[in-house]
Amino acid sequence: MDIKQISSMAQVDCDQWNHLAGDAYPFMRHEFLLALEQSGSIAVSTGWIPAHLLVLDKEELVAFMPLYLKEHSWGEYVFDHQWAQAYQQHGLDYYPKWLTSIPLTPCQGSRIVVKAAIDPLEITQRLLTFIKQLSEQRDISSWHCLFPALHQVELFRSLNLSIREGVQFQWFNQGYRDFNDFLQTLSASKRKMLKRERRRVSEQGVSLLRIAGSDVSDGQWQTFFDFYAMTYLKKGSQPYLNLAFFKQIAATMGEQLLLVLALKDDKPVAAALSFIGADTLYGRYWGCYEEYNGLHFEACYYQGMDYCIEQGLKQFDSGAQGEHKISRGFEPVTTYSAHWLKDVRFAKAIDQFLTEEQKAVQRYKENAASYLPFKQET
């Protein structure tokens, strides 16, 4: 088996890649990663340089790992800016660094995809050895793998990589018949709060429309993008993604997109976009021009929960952060990242930091769980 490095998803066959990746996790699809590159959302100019690794057995693709050379730490959702500052204070360069992740996407999933008949430990060892050799040759400080699936976390741990923990909030479908069935699991006060929030949206004359990605019109994509961009512009920053990206994934993987469009007097006032996996709905992007009472919760959470119940999806991953999700039934879950640092001294110091941070993360997770709105068992 040989390892080959490519500088674009266009250099690997889409069918071969997707044959291994499948479509259960939409962000690993060739179409998604290619759209990031071809739209210019991911490029040298944005500080994301594609450098993907392929494992080939003769001509057959048997494993792969998305990889980027990063000149900064923006758009990652696992924050290592303090690590970079520590390097700088000691006269060392933290950037560039290697990053294995789905760009701009804090959703857990496999980060090294391996053909079923091949030992994933062997492949992972080979890829890490390749990365370490490249790092020596090109003076690159480190490699970081963000939001890997749990089974890969244990594999990384067995290879003595540094493991970092975080917390997100996700909703789990316990076989609910409908939204009201879910409400019956909540305490009376929280059940009343959720009902009131949903009612207020309709009382303001706002209705919600769910549209499959393949059915979204060009005009609706433009409207959605305007809302999405507004979320960033309100904070004085530029959006990571552009309209070309959204139109490209709509054309190539529209069956895995769900647009929620909020209308008032038949005019769009807000929108939220989600991705559909095999058993999980991934809430990703939202925006509006002006605020309506409860509309963010309705468009970004309750519509997604409704969809999961109707379609029999087990889980709703609504993205990073958001403690306000707890009172709406989103449970704290542990997320992970794996790290290798070339400098042994810094690796040891960061391991010590992660040991203490892990204790704080666990306390935070336990505290967050104590605020969940579910009825107490008697």
How would you describe this structure in keywords?
single chain, 378 residues, alpha+beta, Aminopeptidase, 2 domains, 4-stranded antiparallel beta sheet, 15 strands, globular
Kindly summarize this structure in a few lines.
The protein has 378 residues and is α+β, with helices and mostly antiparallel strands. The protein is built from eleven helices and 15 strands.
CATH topology name of the largest domain: Aminopeptidase
Structural class: alpha+beta
**Which superfamily, in CATH terms, is the homologous superfamily of the largest domain?**
Gcn5-related N-acetyltransferase (GNAT)
**What sort of overall outline do the alpha carbons produce when their principal axes are compared?**
globular
> In total, how many domains does the architecture comprise?
2
Describe the largest sheet: 11 strands, mixed
Q: In DSSP terms, counting alpha (H) and pi (I) runs of 4 or more, how many helices?
A: 11
Cα Rg: 22 Å
CATH class of the largest domain: Alpha Beta
- Percent range of helical residues: 25-40%
Determine the N-to-C terminus distance.
Answer: 58 Å
Record field, number of beta strands: 15
The CATH architecture assignment of the largest domain turns out to be 3-Layer(aba) Sandwich
